[in-house]
Structures are given as C-alpha cells and as structure tokens.
Design brief:
The complex is a heterodimer. Chain A contains five helices and 15 strands. By secondary structure, chain A is an alpha/beta fold. The mean pLDDT of chain A is about 95. Chain B is built from six helices and eleven strands. In chain B, a hairpin with a 4-residue loop joins strand 8 and strand 9 (about 165). The chains are: A alpha/beta, B alpha/beta. At the A-B interface, helix 3 and helix 4 of A face helix 4, helix 5 and helix 6 of B. Chain B: GO terms for molecular function: succinyl-CoA:3-oxo-acid CoA-transferase activity.
C-alpha cells in the first residue's frame, strides 16, 4: 500500500534527531512536527523569523503577528525567539540549522531539486527554498513518487527549472525511501506491501538495489 | 531629539512619484504597512517598482495596487495566492523579478548597511545565477548579488516614538527590520506612537536614525492569511 501523506511525514520524523534545529517546508514537511519523538529536544525554525515554533493556536487565540513561513497562525514554545528575515537566512547559510525538509516537483539522481516553477504554467516563486537547499548540510525531500498521470518524478535529470544542484540527501515518497549517493539513487526501504518491482517501474532514474529491501517501520 | 513625526499618512507619502522604486516590509500579510498602501491606492501614482517578499492577496496589501495597475515591476521571492498577479505576469503586463528569499533580505540589509554587493550560494546552478558573477569560496560556488537601490522604504512596526525608534512584534519583524534605512527615505507606520523616553533604549530593534518619517496608522486590520487552529481536547 502506498503511504498517505501523514505516513510519509511519520517516516521522515524518524530522521529528526536529538538537539536538531529543523526547518520544515510547506505541505507534507509541516506535518513532520506532529510525529517527532517526544523524548528528544528539537527546535523548529521558520524562515520568516521564528525559532522555537509550537503547535497551532487554539481557536480564538490566533495572533496575526505570529505566523510560520506558510503564513499559518502558530504559537511559540518556551525559549522561542523572533528575528528579522536577513538574520533568519544568516542562521540558515551559516548552517546552524541541522536539517531541512521540503517538498519537490522533481528530484534527480545527482541530488538536483526542482520545486518552484513550471514554465508557462505556474510561477509561484522559490521563496526561501533556494537559500535553504544551497546552505543546509542535510536535506530530505518529501514528495510523491509519481504525478497524477502516473509519470515518475524521480528522474535521471530534472526537466523543470532547478531550485538547487547536487544538494538532496534523502527522498521519502509514498513508495520508498531513497538515498542520493555518488552513484545515484539507492533504494533503502519500501512502503509496506509495495514490491521492489513496483518501485522500479515507478522510477525513471536507475536504482541501486543491494540485497533484501526492508519495509519501512514507523 | 530630532523628531521624525509627521501628522498623517498623507504627509508621510509626500514625494512618492510614478516610476519610483519602493520597498514594502511584511511577509505575506503579516506586518505590511497597510495604511500607507491604502493611501497610495488613492493616488494616481503608477509604474512603481515594488520590492516586497510577496505581492499581497487579490483584495488586500499590495494586491490593491496591482488591481489598479499602479505597479510596473515586482521584485519578490514568492507570489502565489494572488490570481490577479498571476494574470498580469503571464500576460506580460507586469514585469517580475523572482529572487531567493534570503537573497532578497540580504539585498535589503546590504543597502541598509552600505555594502554594495555580496556573495551567496543561493541560486547557484539555477536560472537565478544567469548573468551574475560566480566565485568559489571555501570549496563552494557562490554568486554575486547587489544591494537594492530604492527611493523609499515603507515599513510597519508595533511601537515607535517621535525619534523614529522602532520595536516590532512577533514575526511581523520580518523584512521590516531589513528595509528600515534601506531606501533614500524610510517611512514607518506604527500601531502605537509613544512619547520619547517611553521606550527602553535596550529594547529598540531599529534606531531612529534609519527612519525619516513616522506616524501612527489610523487603523490596522491585520488580516490573517491562513487561520490555522487546533481543537481543545
């Protein structure tokens, strides 16, 4: 069974380690915060200028002045801080943020990512994604393996305008966990009940497959 | 004390003319100078180049200036959630320069800090890097980005005093703190204009020297773009 978006977030949450500062992108990555182990210390950064983000506020307690980069109302936890946009990207570029989790339209086997533009169709802009992917040491992409037409988004080479080059370390999709290695995508895990053959058929890029591929554990 | 106080938004926008380049603080609708934007909508000023992280929504923020076709060019990092913007951009009526958000912020900060240009890794290897000088530092490629040159910077703060000192609240600090002092003239609209001596100098985010005009906004709608809540158990 292909994973739900919540399950993709659950699997990615396992990559979040104790004492990590983490930046979460819009969409599936935002859900990751719900599934991080409670016995570890993690702080979430949002590039619009907050460190120490908490959950959404209770109805009636929303504050227009306290939002995340997805423009959603949020709360802060004890120890939180606010700062301006230049300072925020300063801490990103100087690699104080340990892990960036973001969505993508395409990822290629050398770790390129495309997620900001479909020429002639959709131009929303890159937001902070180009700064994040050019700066972070550890970048995990949460995405769907195939598009609505069933075509692979895990490619030998991206077809859309790039957001960053050679930066993605790991990809978690509804079908698989892939690691970007020097030699291309290595299949690490498969979604429960999804066969290796199904993953190969859904992937345009070559896959490095060594031994038995375990099912994901949440 | 050198006072920066002007009586109202109309005095604050004196000297803004068509074809100028103007910075607008805010992230989404959070911390936007909504009173000044509303005043500009009521003028015939047009062909503006606007530097702002976003372009508002169809019926609020910079979206209002777009509706009246007062904007010639937008320099932004993210412009989703605005149908009129998308229509004008795809039809070629509106010129758009998309720039990575951290680069946008740093180009403001560089202007504020008197630095003409800087190198950043953001955008290297992408179309953002086209035509820009690329250099390797510490084994990593970077591209050169230049400071913005703006005629006016318009920011919004929570509290300010007549000396122009500003304090922001929450994530409404965003681009406001980077743009204050980054234009030839900086206009600050504040929710509360307090007498000098009221604000603790230790708590000032932007010193008054960066601000030329300050006024208390008549009304702040402070619209929320994505109201997200959780349910009490």
């Amino acid at each position: 069974m292909a994973l739900s978006k919540e399950d993709i977030a659950k699997r990615i949450a396992k990559e979040v380690k104790d004492r990590y500062f983490v930046n979460l992108g819009i969409g599936i990555p935002t859900l990751v915060a719900n599934y991080v182990r409670e016995d570890i210390a993690v702080e979430f950064q949002s590039e619009n200028g907050v460190l120490g983000m908490g959950p959404f506020p209770f109805a009636g307690e929303e504050d227009a002045d306290i939002i995340n980069a997805g423009k959603q109302t949020i709360t802060t936890l004890p120890g939180a801080s606010f700062f301006d946009s230049a300072f925020s990207f300063g801490m990103i570029r100087s690699q104080k943020v340990d892990l960036t989790i973001l969505g993508a339209m395409e990822v290629s086997e050398n770790g390129d990512i495309a997620n900001w533009k479909i020429p002639g169709k959709m131009v929303k802009g890159m937001g902070g994604a180009m700064d994040l992917v050019a700066s972070a040491e550890n970048i995990i992409v949460a995405m769907m393996h195939v598009n609505k037409a069933g075509e692979s988004k895990i490619l030998k080479k991206c077809t859309l305008p790039l957001t960053g080059v050679g930066c993605v370390k790991k990809v978690v999709t509804e079908l698989a966990v892939l690691e970007v290695t020097k030699n291309g995508f290595k299949l690490l895990e498969r979604a429960p009940g999804v066969s290796v053959e199904h993953i190969i058929a859904s992937t345009e890029a070559n896959l490095i497959i060594e031994g038995e591929i375990p099912e994901m554990i949440f | 004390m050198i006072t920066k106080k002007v009586n109202n938004v109309h005095e604050a926008i004196q000297g803004i003319e068509s074809n100028m380049t103007i910075m607008f603080g805010g992230f989404g609708l959070c911390g936007i100078p909504e009173n000044t934007i509303a005043a500009l909508v009521n003028t015939t000023i047009s062909d503006l180049t606007c530097i702002s992280n976003n372009a508002g929504v169809d019926d609020f923020g910079l979206g209002l200036l777009l509706q009246k076709k007062q904007i010639k060019k937008m320099i932004s990092s993210y412009v989703g959630e605005n149908a009129e913007f998308e229509r004008q951009m795809l039809s070629g009526e509106l010129e758009v320069e998309l720039t990575p958000q951290g680069t946008l912020a740093e180009r403001c900060r560089a202007a504020q800090a008197g630095i003409p240009a800087f190198f950043t890794p953001a955008g290297y290897g992408t179309e953002v890097a086209e035509g820009k000088e690329a250099r390797e530092f510490n084994g990593k490629m970077h591209i050169m980005e230049e400071a913005f040159k703006a005629d006016f910077a318009i920011v919004k703060a929570w509290k300010g005093d007549e000396a122009g000192n500003l304090i922001f609240k929450g994530t409404a600090r965003n681009f406001n703190a980077c743009m204050a002092g980054a234009g030839k003239i900086t206009i600050a609209e504040v929710e509360e204009l307090v007498p000098v001596g009221t604000l603790d100098p230790n708590q000032i985010h932007i010193p008054g020297i960066m601000v030329q005009r300050i006024f208390q906004g008549e009304k702040f709608e402070k619209r929320i773009e994505q109201r997200t809540v959780r349910v009490k158990n």
